[in-house]
Amino acid sequence: MAAPGPAEQPNAPYLEAVVAYAFRGTARYHVPGHKGGPGADPGLRKAIGVDALAFDVPQDIHGIDLGLTPTPYEDAERLAAEAFGAERSFFLTNGATQGNHALCLALAPLGTRIVAQRNSHTSIVDGLVLSGGVPHFVAPEYDAELGITHAVTPDSLAAALRDAPDARAAFVVSPTYYGMAADVGALTGVAHAAGVPLVVDQSWGPHFGFHDALPPTALSQGADAMVTSTHKIAGSLTQSAMLHVGPGRVDAGAVARALRLLRTTSPSSLLLASLDAARRQLVLHGEQLFHETLEAIAVAREKLETIPGIAMVDDRLVGHMGIAGYDPLRIVIDVRGTGCTGYEIADALRRSYDVHIELPAQATLVFIVGPGESVAALRRLAGDIEETVKRIARPGRTAPVVGSREMIRHEVAVAPRDAFLGRTSVVPVDEAVGRISCEAIASYPPGIPALLPGERILPETVAYLRELADGGARLHGASDPRFRTMNVLDEP
Question: How far apart are CA 320 and CA 303, in angstroms?
């Protein structure tokens, strides 16, 4: 589909107001202490430039976010809502994590239950730690060939909502880190039939809806709220994101109150302005930028498909395992036929060609491509991969690290908040089996938890995490990065 909002958005009101304030010779007798540059360390001035320092202004400045309504800041969020088809949009300066935390506080207050996709980002469970809500997990479809999880099916969501009739909301992920999009329209129908709103973590799809080859946005398919991590692909600065609320089932006022609790009183004007600019670029030029990028990706794909041992993970999976769409800006490679792990190939690419990739895993590699990527750059990438595989490939096939199906159906023994804040003991991981976890542990990236606070620890989970750690994965959230010990709840 084309851009979900109106095409006539040539202005970036917040960006323009900050630029006007920064460069008109304003006498600054307010924070920050660098005063727009003169007070900054010379090394910092050289590193980021005097313009960036001049641009770094605090909140509560007349003509930016104070003064006559609508202020430029209010206008910027309004334009974002129009662009993404939302009733109300919020700029976030602590990533999509902040949006997930706010939605949990707004929709899952103390003691209430939600249904949540088991391979959600850890920020969902962290949000429940903050709010005191309780998850009832719905398992996604599991791809044992590659050792990765995909989407939740409508049937699975319906069954989970029947099993948790007191649930106040349903939280799902679309797309996944691997670019696989769920059937959000059908999931919305299931959630609404059960009388609950559907919230979609669309962090990895901030660009969705701005080109016909991209999947549609979650809101355009009926979802009630979505979080988009704008910095990931859509061009804003790292740590910036947006939260979009549709009409009706999610109280935007409650979300706003939660965000006031979570956000700093000193938000970065650079992050906020980058969101305003990214929205403008998506609306005005997104379709053409993505068209050019997709042409460049096609050149790379053509080369990659000729490399022995390499297979593409792409839209051929649509129609299977709950997958209804695929993000073509993700280049996902199955490397099992090379006899090497994804970690080995990623390390060789970095050492030989200074190529740094988004996600190496046991059986796959994930490359993130942004708007404006050139044909020359992606052709060179494909050539670097070809030369690397030629040099290090060995006979045989790499076996994926495959977790058991029971692992994505953990028993939630206590609320995440009670486990996270409870009294704990540190025990060897083998002695942790059968105990209640106080940690959220995930192979990172992608930050999908294999174990969460409040879940009872299975022997399969310990074996899976140990295999990941021994294979070179980084276990995000683990108190012991080597995975020799764990924090468990002291039970009466």
Answer: 26
